[in-house]
Amino acid sequence: MPSHSPALSRARRGVGVSGPGAGRPLARNRGLRRGGLTLFALILPSIVLLLLINAYPLVYAARQSLHQGSLIAAGDFVGLDNYTRVLTSTAFWKATRFTLLFTVVGVFGSWLVGLGLALLLKSRVPGRGTFKVLLLLPWVVPIVVSSTAWNYLLATPDSPLPRLFTAVGWGNPLFLADPTLAVVTVCLFKVWASFPFMMLMTSAALTSVDGTVYEAASMDGANRWQQFTGITLPLIARSTYISWILMTIFSVNDFPTIYLLTGGGPVDATTSLVVLAYRTVFQNFQTGPGVAIAFLMTATLVVVSVLLYRQIRKSAVE
């Protein structure tokens, strides 16, 4: 009978075969585990710090929304009464309508202006570098300075723009005193202050588009509009949805633009949800309803962000 080697006999009995590389996989796995534990130990303080910075205020605010208290005391527990009170309030729904209008105009208005300017700057325009820097000024200049300048131009009947309207025979409009004109002015101000961000996002996306795609489309007989709708928009769709998500968050949470320009007036025509929450907490000292408004805003933003994020995943170009 053929003799069996000792190593083969040990292998059949389930005993590991010894050799120069027999223990290397096990040692490698142990090393990986130790490395993972080391990395976890290193990032654990940062995780704890982030939880303390973000989770604690969130939990405390949620607790305040369930109590009828003030800025210095939690008060009595009232459950969901604050949310019921807010959702049945006329002021809340009026602020919701304005917030929706302000957000839609801010997002899509600034995107359309930014997209048009990005396409223009992509072409060979003389001095486009200087032009791009100048276009960034509305976004770079502090909002306090911008709102002060707009107030100087529009606020009173003796301001430059109302006087210009009077000189050409268009009457003397009260841009910040008339409810309708105030809404229009605030929305235009938002577009003016936000389009540079959209322009930068779109310009960055356009630089990644291969020019040979347009050449091939031209050879196939596609005109400029067909190239724009069939090539440009689909190829920059991911960046577009990301910019929409960010601008939606910026618009809903935009407190200084409205408060510095109109203060939420006249007759609450430009009172957004964030301004209403501020007034409720810091002027009326009703912490519970004010925080409830903020939580409802947050929930809405989460839903909108999730929906747009799904569109980002669907817009992947293969």
TrEMBL record:
Q: Where is the ABC transmembrane type-1 domain?
A: 96-308
- Where is it mainly found? membrane
Q: Which Pfam families match?
A: BPD_transp_1
Region feature Disordered, mapped onto this chain: 1-22
Cellular compartments annotated: Cell membrane
Question: What UniProt keywords apply to this chain's record, in alphabetical order?
Answer: Cell membrane, Membrane, Transmembrane, Transmembrane helix, Transport
Q: How does it sit in the membrane?
A: Multi-pass membrane protein
Has the keyword Nucleus been applied to this entry? no
Membrane-spanning parts: 37-56, 98-121, 133-154, 174-193, 228-252, 290-309
Report the sequence similarity comment from the record. Answer: Belongs to the binding-protein-dependent transport system permease family.
Protein name per Swiss-Prot or TrEMBL: Carbohydrate ABC transporter permease
Source species, please?
Kineococcus mangrovi
